[in-house]
Write a structure and sequence with these properties.
The chain has about 190 residues and is mainly beta. The protein contains two helices and nine strands, in the order βββββββααββ. Strands 1-2-3-4-5-6-7-8-9 form a nine-stranded antiparallel β-sheet, with no helix packed on it. It is globular.
C-alpha cells in the first residue's frame, strides 16, 4: 500500500487589493502544512504573509484527533496579524492594528449517546493594539471621537462550546456522509 502525499507548500505573490483586506499593494506569502504528520493522524500548518512594508500575518496550527489513543481531540492556534489602515493615505504615519492571540480546544466523542457526536470546548485570548494612533489623532482632531471608539486597544478572552455530528465515511477523503455543527462563544464580563 502506498500512501498519497498529504503535505502542501504554497507560495503566493500579488499586486493590488485582496478580498477581505483593507490595504492594497504588493503582498507575498508562504504556507506549509501536513496532514497525518508522522503517520499519527496529526495535522499541522505554518503560514506567513507580508504586506507592502510590514509583516501581515503569521500563524501556526496543530490538531491531534486522538490524544493518547483516546476519544479526546485537541488543537491550538497561535497567530499575529497586522492590518494597515489605508484610509489615511495622505498620512505618513498610517495607523496599524496589531492582533496577537491564541486558541486551544478539547473535543470529546460521546459514543454512548451517538457514535458520530462530538462536543468541544474552546478557550481563547487575543490582544489588539494600535501603532501610530496618537500621531493620527493629533493630526485629525475632528475625527477624534470616532477614532477613540474604533481604535481602542485591549485584551479579549472568550470561552466557547460546540456540538457536531459527523457521518462522513473518512476524515480526510470522504466520499459520502455529512457534517453538522452548532457553536457558541461568549466573552464574560470582568474578563476583558
Amino acid at each position: 500500500v502506498n500512501e498519497i502525499k498529504t503535505g502542501h507548500f504554497n507560495f503566493v505573490a500579488g499586486l493590488g487589493g485582496r478580498e477581505g483586506r483593507l490595504g492594497s499593494g504588493m503582498h507575498m506569502g508562504l504556507q506549509v502544512g501536513k496532514r497525518n504528520l508522522m503517520g499519527r493522524g496529526w495535522n499541522g500548518s505554518f503560514n506567513i504573509m507580508s504586506e507592502r512594508s510590514h509583516l501581515g500575518q503569521l500563524g501556526i496550527n496543530f490538531y491531534n484527533p486522538y490524544i493518547f489513543d483516546t476519544n479526546v481531540e485537541s488543537s491550538f492556534d497561535l497567530y499575529h496579524k497586522v492590518e494597515e489602515y489605508d484610509q489615511w493615505g495622505a498620512s505618513t504615519m498610517r495607523p496599524k492594528e496589531c492582533v496577537t492571540g491564541g486558541v486551544t480546544s478539547l473535543g470529546f466523542r460521546l459514543p454512548d449517546v451517538d457514535r458520530d457526536l462530538m462536543c468541544r470546548t474552546e478557550l481563547g485570548i487575543e490582544r489588539n493594539y494600535f501603532e501610530n494612533f496618537a500621531n493620527l489623532r493629533a493630526m485629525d482632531s475632528h475625527s477624534a471621537f470616532m477614532l477613540d471608539r474604533r481604535l481602542k486597544s485591549g485584551v479579549l478572552m472568550w470561552i466557547g462550546a460546540s456540538a457536531s455530528k459527523d457521518t462522513r465515511n473518512h476524515p480526510v477523503y470522504p466520499s459520502r456522509g455529512y457534517r453538522l455543527m452548532a457553536t457558541s462563544k461568549v466573552a464574560l464580563p470582568g474578563m476583558n
